[in-house]
Amino acid sequence: MVPRRGPLRLHHPSGCERELVREILEIPEEAQQLVVFLPADEATARAVDGLAGRSAGRLRAV
After folding, report:
1. Less Cβ around it within 10 Å: N or C end of the chain?
2. Contact 22, 35 (CB under 8 A)
3. pTM of the model
């Protein structure tokens, strides 16, 4: 099932709330979609970087 469009709010067990933005690429010829989740704010971007062990500002895939 493809997630609905718009922001996705995650409630982490640590008590922090993070927000991701969904970007959807439609591929009608193949009847497919590519869904990409991007950090919606700086705090979420830092948290995602920390999970992956990366330094801030680098390209990342989650």
Report:
1. N
2. yes
3. 0.62
